[in-house]
Every structure is written in C-alpha cells, then in structure tokens.
Backbone:
C-alpha cells in the first residue's frame, strides 16, 4: 500500500500543532540535523489511517524506532500495552522529566513501553538535552502567568516542562517577553 503525500498546508498544520517538537520525546526540530516526519500514531499496517487525528510530528529516531508498532511490552509488568497516543493522551500525565531534565521517565506501563520501544533516552538525544541545558535556548519563561527574568538554563527547564504542551507557541512566549522587557526597561 502506497502512502499518500501530504499537502504543504497539512505538513505546516501538523508541525505547528506540535510546536515544532517531536510529539513523543519533545525534541525541538530546530536543533535536529535529521528531518522530522509525519508519523501514523496507529500504523497503517494495523488499521490506522492518514486522517489528521492519526498523525503526529516525530523526530527521525522516534519515528524509526516506532515503525509499525501500536503496542509494546512493559518490562516492569511484563504485559503488552498500547503505546502513547499524542492525540488522546496527555504527555504530563504519563511522562516526567528526570531531576536534571535530561531523561524522560514513564509513569505508567504504556509510557514505559513507549520509552523502551522509541528509545526516548537514546545517548545522542540525552547529550543534546545536556548541551541545550548548558547553553540555554531563550531568555525568558512564563510561570503562573507572569514573566520572570531568568538564566538560559532555568528557561530551558521551564520550557521543556510547560511551554511545549501549552496552548501558547514558544515564539509567542519570546515575542511577549521581549515586548514586556522593552517596556519595563525603557528600551
């Protein structure tokens, strides 16, 4: 069965819906040297379709490792479980960041199986997370509806835990922060 080609507006919609991050490991596409892919959440080979509700934006690593699987073994409970579904599941309810923000931890059997199959803590990805934490990516963060000046490192920590899944685009965070900073400092 041949896969359909996605129109440019469909690709754009899928990317923007994911805020240009992998919907599984949350890696930002702007820092990736590999292309990101439109991924079938429920693979076509097991009955999935190419409707928008079954499509996710995924990094090359997560997409390649997931391949055509819809379920995987949770090593802790030794049961086969469904994989994380970015259209139906809430990321924060099933995953959490390690205390140093470099590893993703699973809170449920389904999520542990997803981490295992997709190799969401693969060495290269963890190293890039460490580099992003060391160098920082932006100059602001939004916490409890108020802007706070912060270091690059603390921004990235807040960014990966809140902004990614927020209804507000990271670009909007930056634009509003810069406008607020300019107004408050008379720039």
Residues:
């Amino acid at each position: 069965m041949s896969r359909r080609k996605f129109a440019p507006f469909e690709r754009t919609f899928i990317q923007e819906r994911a805020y240009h991050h992998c919907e599984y490991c949350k890696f930002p596409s702007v820092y990736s040297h590999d292309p990101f892919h439109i991924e079938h959440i429920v693979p076509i080979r097991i009955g999935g379709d190419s409707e928008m509700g079954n499509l996710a934006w995924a990094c090359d690593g997560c997409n390649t490792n997931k391949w055509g699987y819809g379920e995987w073994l949770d090593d802790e409970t030794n049961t086969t479980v469904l994989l994380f579904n970015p259209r139906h599941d809430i990321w924060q309810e099933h995953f959490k960041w390690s205390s140093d923000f470099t590893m993703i931890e699973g809170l449920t059997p389904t999520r542990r199986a997803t981490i295992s199959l997709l190799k969401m803590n693969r060495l290269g990805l963890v190293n890039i997370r460490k580099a992003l934490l060391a160098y920082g990516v932006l100059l602001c963060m939004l916490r409890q509806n108020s802007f706070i000046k912060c270091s690059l490192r603390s921004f990235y920590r807040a960014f990966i835990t809140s902004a990614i899944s927020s209804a507000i685009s990271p670009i909007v965070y930056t634009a509003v922060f810069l406008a607020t900073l300019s107004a408050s400092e008379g720039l």
